[in-house]
Amino acid sequence: MEDVLASTKHRLRVSFWYVGQLLAWFPAILLLPVVFVIFYPEEWKYITAFLVPAVVSFVSGYLLKKISKLSNGHVVGYQEGAVIVVTTWIVAILLSASPFIITGFLNFHQAIFEATSGWTTTGLTMFPDVESLPHVLLVWRSIMQFIGGAGFAVIMLATLIGPLGASLYGSEGRVDNILPNVTQSTKVIMIIYVTYAVLGMVLLHLAGMPWFDAFNHSLTALATGGFSVKNTSIGFYNSVSIETITIVLMILGGTGFGIHYTLWKGNFKAFLRNGEPWLMGTTIVLATVFLVPHASKVFHENALRYTIFQVVSAITGTGFSNTDLVPWVALFPLGVFLLTVIMMLGGMMDSTAGGLKQFRVFVTLKLLVRAIRDFVGPRRKVGKIMVWKGESRRTIDENIIKDMFIFFGIYALTYLLGTLVLMSYGYDPLVSMFEFSSAMNGVGLSVGLTSPDLPVGVLWTMTLGMFLGRLEFLVVFYALARIIRDLKILLTENGGEIN
Description:
Layout: H1 2-25, H2 27-30, H3 48-68, H4 78-102, H5 108-119, H6 135-150, H7 152-161, H8 167-171, H9 182-206, H10 211-222, H11 240-253, H12 257-264, H13 268-273, H14 275-299, H15 303-315, H16 328-331, H17 333-345, H18 358-376, E1 385-389, E2 392-396, H19 398-424, H20 429-440, H21 456-470, H22 474-492
Antiparallel strand pairs: 1-2
């Protein structure tokens, strides 16, 4: 028992050190919006809203590192990585909600919802009139989505800690490193990510967006987040060129970083062997072709333009809109239902998108095809299922298949429970299905349910759905199980003191 207790205390110290390290540096992110006060000097009064959580973050981080009694990081396993990632996400959301509360724009429940929507790159918002918000708060929403899309715990910890935090990569839903070293992978991800963001901003500006709008929309499009600086989202600009550029940015955001790296290296043979781009592209085309005839009854000559934008926005989990979706419930319910399904499919693995992910769907389809062949064809030796992921060819073994179907089961159960909770508050079944799917899959499209007037129970149900969906369920459950088990051990020995 002494060995178990010692191991538990060491694990706690390591977790304290890692979380403390992140908190000590998190003010660097919190204070980024303050830079924009240079351009909008009338907003100096809002600086306190960022300074207060920044100070709290730094002091908390310093104290946690002191409590840990460690001078540097230690190698962590997947269980410890799960605890660290879940803890840092929760703390970051609480700190990130503070500016909305301190400025008085949102209450606690609404602010937590907004911050969670930001970091999970969902895009559902508590602000019915974003155009009335200070620029610093608009920038803060975009920064949360941009960093959250890349995997902020991974980016922060891998940058500050290095290869010792390698298991944190998997704890945020990443299945492979682009390069053998997690720090190198992180740098490559950020180079790709920032390059696309800069190009997107320039192109959007050339297409007619003001620089401030282009900056924010490029960040949130690439992060597949969907926060906008306009009440009517991309539809405000009524520009085909802006919508086209946004579609490209959304697809780039919904594409896995490993596939981007394959393209950047010029390895087109490997790119063409990856099933995810083909599957996502096919889904976009088929869904658009199916929906356009029905949509033409509502949008007439603009049916193709509106449909393809909404389909790409849904499957990549972005949540931008170029038309009002509220009338769709009554005029185009089939479209609402199909968009709900598309949101569930999601983007590619290791992208900024949420949902089931194209990789899992592709593997499931391959399993189905093999099962049908084995049933109707002659008996033969069972061959391995091989799929391409980035530049490497992978074998889909029983463990991967088991993990996939566990994920599918938890996903379905969570979606069912969340939808039922919304329906229990009296909301229409189709609206409840769509809105919770949008939250859980990190999309952000809304048919009018999400508003600051939502009951507290609905707010927290959707907040939990966003959080679980972004961290892919199992990581959260593993972390909770590990925390509960460690607490039991500590409470039964030495009064829980960490010596």
